[in-house]
Write a structure and sequence with these properties.
This protein has 295 residues and is mainly beta. The protein folds into two domains: 162 residues, no CATH class; 103 residues, Tumour Suppressor Smad4 (Sandwich). It has three helices and 18 strands. The strands form five sheets. Strands 3-2-4-5-8 form a five-stranded mixed sheet, with no helix packed on it. A five-stranded antiparallel sheet has the order 14-13-12-18-17, with no helix packed on it.
Length: 295
């Protein structure tokens, strides 16, 4: 009986560890829960986007709930006019409406602000009024105004996101190769368009005797697809970041794969994996297809 119990325990231990020694233990699960919390918060953020408008350089871009605005918000309870955005030479100037208090992240109140300062994503600074916030996203020759509403009904409808059970089989010690100069590849983007993306290296791993490789971008960022797409996972592919051990090896953990923003909101813009990054295998790890309750 003792030998039988020991055998069961041994099988349980081996079942949570792969051939490369990666295992799912308490510390791993705690870290993973932190990852899930961050991803959940990002999903809620995407679901809070209630409106998106393409700015017009030739006229004032007024926005609010009133139909007299150039851009009318869906929420009829919003202020009649939150403000306007005007192109002035090389600047993009926001003007708040009278009696509408607009704040920045540091809580300072502003009447006029230059939105042309962009971060690495092409996003301007966020502005806030009560449960609303907004920013401008620059995409090549297009500037988009995105409106967020922390009370957007889509948030309360969200049933949470689903993932595969944690699987040590999809944690790999991977080999890194950095390119002498970035490889430029045309990648699919939202609405059937393409854009040029720079990939700085490749990451190679072995699974069931087969070698697979993926191109990665700055920030150890990977866009990939696999044979679970359309049946169990998001059809356009998933995202993943990896951690480096040194300049030659990395830990590639597909349990941390997550869906692009476009799987949750039509008001986002996404890049998708190039053809080279579609794997000829089923990656049964990470986030599954988005669960969205539209009732």
């Amino acid at each position: 009986m003792k030998n039988f119990c020991y055998l069961i325990l041994l099988v349980a231990i081996i079942g949570c560890q792969n051939e490369e020694g990666f295992k799912i233990d308490n510390e791993y699960e705690q870290d993973y829960q932190e990852f899930k919390k961050r991803i959940h918060e990002e999903h809620i953020y995407y679901l809070s986007i209630s409106d998106m408008f393409e700015l017009d350089s030739a006229s004032p871009n007024t926005f609010g709930s009133s139909p007299e605005n150039k851009f009318q918000l869906k929420d009829s309870t919003a202020p009649a006019r939150l403000g306007s955005i005007i192109f002035e030479n090389d600047s993009l100037i926001f003007h708040s409406s009278p009696n509408v208090e607009v704040k920045l992240e540091n809580d300072s109140v502003i009447d006029t602000y230059n939105l042309i300062s962009l971060d690495y994503r092409g996003h301007s600074i966020n502005m806030y009024h009560e449960n609303y916030s907004w920013y401008v996203n620059s995409l090549e020759n297009v500037k988009l105004l995105r409106i967020m509403d922390s009370r957007n009904p889509e948030i309360s409808k969200f049933p949470g996101f689903q993932t595969y059970d944690l699987n040590p089989e999809f944690i790999f010690e991977a080999k890194l190769t950095y390119y002498d100069s970035p490889k430029v590849i045309e990648v699919p983007v939202t609405q059937g368009n393409t854009r040029e993306a720079e990939f700085i290296g490749s990451i190679e791993f072995e699974y069931k005797g087969q070698t697979h490789s993926l191109d990665f971008m700055e920030g150890n960022f990977i866009m990939f697809g696999d044979k679970t797409a359309l049946t169990e996972t998001y059809g356009a592919g998933r995202y993943l970041e990896f951690t480096t051990n040194d300049n030659k090896t990395a830990v590639l953990d597909f349990n941390h794969a997550y869906n692009p923003p476009c799987s949750y909101s039509g008001f986002t813009t996404c890049s998708y994996p190039p053809e080279e990054n579609w794997l000829e295998l089923e990656v049964k790890a990470g986030e599954k297809e988005a669960l969205l309750n539209k009732s």
